[in-house]
Design brief:
Elements lengths: L4 H7 L8 E5 L6 E4 L1 H7 L3 H4 L11 H6 L11 E7 L5 E12 L5 E9 L1 H23 L3 E6 L4 E4 L1 H6 L4 H6 L2 H11 L3 H13 L5 E6 L5 E11 L2 E11 L1 H6 L5 H8 L3 E6 L4 E4 L1 H7 L18 H13 L2 E9 L5 E12 L5 E10 L1 H14 L10 H14 L5 E8 L2 H8 L1 H17 L6 E6 L2 E6 L4 H16 L2 E3 L2 E3 L3 E8 L6 H17 L5 E3 L11 H11 L5 E10 L5 E12 L3 E3 L1 H11 L2 H21 L5 E5 L2 H4 L4 H12 L6 E6 H5 L3 H13 L2 E7 L7 H5 L2 E6 L1 H4 L6 H17 L2 E4 L5 H10 L3 E2 L10 H12 L19
Parallel strand pairs: 21-22, 24-26, 26-27, 27-28, 28-29, 29-30, 30-31
Antiparallel strand pairs: 1-2, 1-5, 3-4, 4-5, 6-7, 6-10, 8-9, 9-10, 11-12, 11-15, 13-14, 14-15, 16-18, 16-21, 17-18, 19-20, 23-24, 23-31, 24-25
Length: 817
């Protein structure tokens, strides 16, 4: 699209702007012009941007929705949102949209964006800095009070509250006047206290140090310095230290002596020849006894090699002090790790007059360092070794014994999510601690139990052959079957165990864990609560894709497939208004096979067409039976895009409805977004034919893929289903919440019903209800149930029972596929 000459000249003025500027056609909402800043912002050239729809630049769901219709655009308002960069990342921006008129009288939308990336980065850095300053303030040994110029409290730490014995209720009020009044009431002379504060107010730059006598006979040292900003006093910083004990002991000494005697750091004073003249109590305590006169200061430290003393002398000469870590030699001969700061004092001629050493005990610091190292090799929750420590054990076993044989067991708790969801994550963490203790009791001293994370554990069985590995796995299963009791609540936790043997199944820890993990999933697929060794065939898929596909094609003839029905419930009334037909497969050899495994396989092989036809017929037959009994509800059936490609699909649906006598209004077909976005004539024609039949069309898992959204206006859609991946994060996850709100708002604007999938908790349902979602399905009401059970639920509802009381299932086990 070429720009008119007058528009080109007019737009030149925008090239000098640092803000990103777009001129947008108000009718088509397409970009007519973008300046260089706009092109840099989104990483596209002007030719790529010109003629594109502004919706393609939007990164936030609400902006995508607003840009679909100019009437939804907020004119003149400054808003914070995001735009999409060519690389796919979202860029935070400040947005303004105005109507403007060009020199020829043409109307345009002037869309300006200001890149807020650096601002947001700076804000995050500032928040981090403030958090660090807060932590520093709370770590201070003195009570600190920061006030503004008018006396308002800006900040204080917990030490201040401790020194002034402030009650908790006072701290919760956030009442500056009350805090100041409390401090005033604690001093012996409130009038003098007021005078001192007034004097500080008259001289904002003065530094002060004074003593406060409190009514409870304690003595507090108060120091104050001005709070400066750009060289100007904007407030005052007070520091308070309880010096009651020091005042009692050292009442006759000068302030310097007070500091010397009361310092928490050990201090010694040496003469020009290095002989110790005086030590403070902290130094005597650290050494274990008072020093004899004339002891050399260097003799206090172990390994006083000449090179060290030369380094001290050189440092004194260059910077006036030496600082470093040493080993302090105590009187009893033991050593103590310390940090020594040794400062020299010279006379007017530059000769050494004396030196002062400040010694800080590093024992606690080193203990903390050891704790950090321990945490690096252990799990913080259970205290078990982590994968890093496990790796060291395995590597040691392999390198020390070339003929080593050991086993790796991968253990996963079955349905542990139920505990977390129903009793909370804190309770779940305590359960994991109990499980760790019970597992540890099943092992030998040389075995290693490691927690990978979540509810997954890895066991290293030292010098263990296959038969011994099986025996230990069986012992673990027996132990786990014993009930757990926590807070008076009894419950059971079972586990699935996969096993791999070294060197048969792998020669590295990563290989062994991978094979054991594969074996564990095979155990879960076979029914959970058991154990099994890795087999090479598992690496090619669950007994191999070819074997599974063959078994799936025989499943219909062997009656291994069944259709279950998951209720769809009206939010406000709790009434069942429909159901979704779900396919389930239980194989004689494979056990219960997850739909997430066999549905993709059926789609890849094309067998989904036959499976879909069978599921549709079963659902129609059940729907007719319910309608005839006066229990009619809408039945939803999932449709693959491969089925829509069949030229006679709509005709077969019509024939099926006619053969069983089911009115089309009782049938819903759930289509994926990807199927609707395909513009092939055969699919478009098929959807139009289905709509003409009166069958309701539903978009399944809405929002999980890229959506053009334009198809929503073209297609005869009656319902949108919010994918369970977004529902699962409610109500805590703000991103999921924003997406769900956007989908519900879109459905309301298009006048279609909204169904939320995978609702498992009351909190999720209440959140969805507040958002305006009309219907839901999921564990909170019921999992997929047999047709007879669903019919009983309908009868119970007809008899006046509340649908929500009809029971749930196992969370996540019967989700729609």
């Amino acid at each position: 699209m070429n720009q008119p000459t007058h528009l080109q000249a007019w737009c030149q003025a925008f090239e000098w702007m640092t803000e990103a500027v777009w001129l947008v056609d108000p009718h088509s909402l397409t970009v007519a012009y973008s300046n260089s800043a706009a092109q840099r912002l989104v990483g596209l050239t002007g030719s790529r941007l010109q003629g594109s729809h502004v919706r393609d630049l939007a990164a936030a769901p609400q902006d995508m929705y607003r840009w679909n219709d100019a009437a939804e655009v907020s004119w003149g308002q400054v808003t914070h949102t995001q735009v999409l960069h060519a690389s796919g990342r979202a860029i935070p921006v400040e947005q303004r949209i105005r109507e403007v008129e060009d020199p020829e009288g043409g109307n345009w939308l002037l869309w300006t964006l200001l890149d807020r990336s650096e601002q947001e980065h700076n804000e995050r850095e500032l928040e981090s800095l403030l958090a660090e300053l807060r932590a520093t303030l709370d770590s201070a040994a003195d009570g600190v009070l920061v006030c503004s110029a008018n006396g308002a409290i800006r900040a204080f730490n917990q030490k201040l509250a401790d020194i002034w014995v402030m009650p908790a209720a006072l701290l919760l009020q956030r009442n500056d006047a009350a805090i100041m009044a409390w401090m005033r009431d604690q001093v012996l002379s409130p009038a003098q206290y007021d005078q001192q504060l007034q004097a500080l107010g008259q001289d904002p730059l003065v530094h002060t140090a004074d003593i406060l006598n409190l009514a409870d006979r304690r003595v507090v040292e108060r120091r104050s310095v001005p709070l400066l900003r750009h060289g100007m006093a904007v407030g005052r910083i007070f520091s308070f230290r309880d010096i009651s004990r020091e005042m009692e002991v050292q009442s006759g000494l000068r302030v310097a002596a007070q500091v010397f005697e009361s310092s928490l750091d050990a201090i010694f004073i040496a003469d020009a020849q290095g002989a110790v003249l005086q030590t403070n109590p902290a130094c005597d305590g650290m050494l274990g006894a008072a020093l004899s006169p004339g002891v050399q200061a260097s003799a206090l430290f172990a390994q006083t090699e000449p090179e060290w003393l030369d380094a001290v002398a050189q440092a004194w000469k260059e910077v006036g002090h030496w600082e470093g870590n040493r080993q302090l030699q105590r009187v009893d001969g033991s050593l103590c790790a310390v940090r020594l700061s040794w400062v020299v004092s010279r006379d007017e001629r530059g000769q050494v007059q004396q030196s002062v050493g400040f010694i800080r005990d590093l024992t606690q610091q080193q203990a903390a360092q050891q704790k950090i190292e321990q945490l690096a090799f252990s799990d913080a929750l259970t205290g078990l070794p982590n994968r890093l420590m496990l790796g060291q054990h395995v590597e040691q076993a392999i390198t020390q014994d070339t003929q080593a044989e050991f086993a790796i067991l991968f253990l996963d708790l079955d349905r542990f999510k139920i505990i977390n969801d129903s009793l909370g994550h804190q309770f779940g963490d305590r359960v994991l601690q109990l499980v760790a203790q019970r597992l540890q009791s099943c092992l030998r001293p040389l075995d290693v139990l490691c927690r990978l994370g979540g509810d997954e554990f890895v066991l290293y069985l030292h010098a263990c052959q296959k038969q011994h590995s099986e025996r230990i796995a069986r012992r673990i299963q027996d132990a786990m079957r014993e009930p757990f009791v926590l807070d008076g609540l009894g419950f059971s936790v079972q586990c699935s165990i996969g096993m791999a043997q070294y060197p048969e199944h792998g020669r590295t820890l990563n290989e062994l864990i991978k094979q054991a993990d594969t074996a564990m999933y095979r155990v879960k697929a076979s029914g959970k609560g058991s154990f099994g060794f890795y087999e090479p065939a598992m690496s090619n898929g669950l007994l191999g894709r070819v074997q599974m596909e063959h078994a799936l094609r025989q499943a219909l003839d062997r009656d291994a497939l069944r259709v279950v029905y998951q209720p769809q419930v009206e939010m406000h009334t709790g009434s069942i208004v429909g159901c979704e037909a779900l396919l389930r497969w239980t194989d004689a050899r494979l056990g219960v096979v997850s739909p997430g495994v066999f549905i993709p396989l059926a789609e890849e092989s094309g067998y989904i067409v036959k499976l879909g036809a069978w599921v549709l017929e079963q659902a129609v037959k059940e729907a007719v039976r319910w309608v005839k009994q006066g229990l009619g509800v809408k039945v939803s059936v999932n449709v693959s895009s491969l089925e829509l490609h069949q030229p006679d699909y709509a005709a077969r649906v019509a024939s099926l409805l006619s053969a069983y006598g089911l009115p089309a209004c009782w049938l819903e077909l759930e289509l994926t977004e990807s199927a609707l976005l395909q513009k092939e004539p055969v699919i478009v024609h098929c959807i139009e034919q289905l709509a003409d039949l009166g069958v309701q069309l539903v978009i399944d898992d809405f929002g999980t893929g890229y959506s053009n959204l334009a198809y929503l206006k073209r297609m005869p859609i009656s319902k949108l289903k919010v994918d369970q991946s977004f529902v699962r994060g409610l109500p805590q996850d703000m991103s999921d919440k924003a997406i769900v709100e956007a989908v519900i708002g879109l459905g309301r604007a298009l006048d279609v019903e909204i169904v939320a999938e995978g609702v498992e908790t009351a909190a999720q349902r209440e959140t969805l209800m507040r958002m305006g979602c009309g219907f839901y399905q999921g564990f909170l009401c019921a999992p997929g149930v047999e047709a007879a059970t669903f019919q009983a639920m309908l009868r119970a509802q007809a008899a006046g029972l509340e649908a929500g009381s009809l029971g749930g299932g196992v969370p996540g086990e019967d989700r729609p596929v």
